[in-house]
Amino acid sequence: MILAFEQSSRRGSIALCRASETLAHREWDDPLARHTRMGPALQELLKESNLQWDALTAIAVGRGPGSFSGLRAAITTARVLAAPSAIPVMALSSGAALAHDWFSRQPTNPAPLVVAGDARRGAIWYAIFCPNTPGMRPSTDWTLAPATEFSARLPANATLATSDRARLLAALGDAASTLEPIEEVFPAATALAHLAQMRFDASLPSEPPEPLYLHAATLA
Q: Which numeric CATH code is attached to 2-94+187-201?
């Protein structure tokens, strides 16, 4: 079983999964204080599932890109819970979880998916994902692009997805009209757990258990 925490966007979630089965799940939408909802949600999930810690294969956590406070809270919680029983922590990008969920819902769609967001300071963070990639590794590293150059870097047939559409549109300005439609999709702890299990089974290593920042963090 895998216990997963995902708090990179305004929609936080926790899930307990066994293989492709979701045993318990909590989700909340709170843009102002998402990290304060995690503790009560975790207590509810533990009570519902009667989780035995020695039954866990790993604790998965999304590392962003995304919210400064949300990522810090999720990663710290995962590491603290894992330490007493030496449970492995499987950290992976929240964007990879989003892409894994996206392609699982559209199994016949061959087009790449660009997961992007406003990095502030006139920049856009993004990575490009393709279907059927082992472990849902991005075909490009997470990187920054000036907002004025972002559209020129995208594959012609790609779908563009973000977990904060309004903020991305504002960052892109006039260039946004050339990129519509822009899908608003949120990384979910269930997808994170399923992807972590796939990576664990394939003996793929965890990413660093620290927030994925592409430049100095700003509060969100």
A: 3.30.420.40
